[in-house]
Structures are given as structure tokens and as C-alpha cells.
Amino acid sequence: MSAATIEKQFVILGRARGNLLLVVVVTAVNLFLAAFDSDLYFLFSASAPYLIFWLAYGFLEGFPEQTIFIVSLALALCVILPYLIYWLFARRRHFFIKMLSSRD
Questions:
Q1: Average pLDDT of every residue of the chain
Q2: What is the spatial distance between Cα 1 and Cα 84, in angstroms, rounded to a whole number?
Q3: Terminus of the chain with fewer CB atoms < 10 Å: N or C?
Q4: Could you report the per-residue pLDDT of 40-83, keeping only the tens digit for each?
């Protein structure tokens, strides 16, 4: 591999890590907005944590309000956690970004 190709791969890796971090941040903002019953939703985010938050919120309806909030938020954050772990480890171990990418 030439030096230019290697440099291009590092630029692509940096952009992929940046996009992954952006998804984590925007998803966290969506969860924050959902927790306070806002009607806003950012599209460039993971939708599974948002859906899990509202499903857990609906299924735990008979419990105290604080318990519902904490459990539904904890379940949603468990889904975001792998994204953050992949972002942290992708700087040194390129395997994590390759595992997330759909291209060959």
C-alpha cells in the first residue's frame, strides 16, 4: 500500500468515528427531549433507544413515576452504550469500525 492510500484510509476512519460520535450525541439529545415530553426528534440518530424509552414508559405504567423514568432511560442508554464503546476503541483498533461498516 502506498502512503497516500494509507493516509486516505485514516481520513475515512476519522470521518467514520466523527459520524459515530455524532449519532451518539444526537441520540442522547433525543432521549433528553423525550424524557421531558418534547415533540421534537432529530432524524440523524439511532431510533432503537428512543423506541425502547417509550415502550418501557408505556409498559411500566402502574409503577411510580420516578421508577418508570429511571428504568426506561436505563434501558435506552444500554442500547447507546455499544456505539460509544465502538467509538472509543476504534481509534486504536480498526476492527470496531470495520465491524460497523456495511461495505466490503
A1: 80
A2: 30
A3: C
A4: 888 888 888 888 888 887 787 788 878 878 888 888 888 899 88
The burial of 67, by beta-carbon neighbours within 10 Å (0-12 exposed, 13-18 middle, 19 or more buried), is given as exposed
Side chain identity at residue 56, one-letter code: A
Its pTM stands at 0.74
With a CB cutoff of 8 Å and minimum separation 6, the contacts of 76 are 31, 49, 50, 52, 53, 56
Look up residue 37 and give its three cell numbers: 415530553
Q: Write out the three cell numbers for 80.
A: 447507546
Determine the Cα–Cα distance for residues 98 and 89; give it in Å rounded to an integer: 12
CA angle 9, 14, 20 (to 5 degrees): 125
Q: Is 95 exposed, middle or buried (0-12, 13-18, 19+ CB in 10 A)?
A: exposed
Per-residue pLDDT at 100 exceeds 60: no
Instruction: Say if residues 53 and 72 touch (Cβ distance below 8 Å).
Output: yes
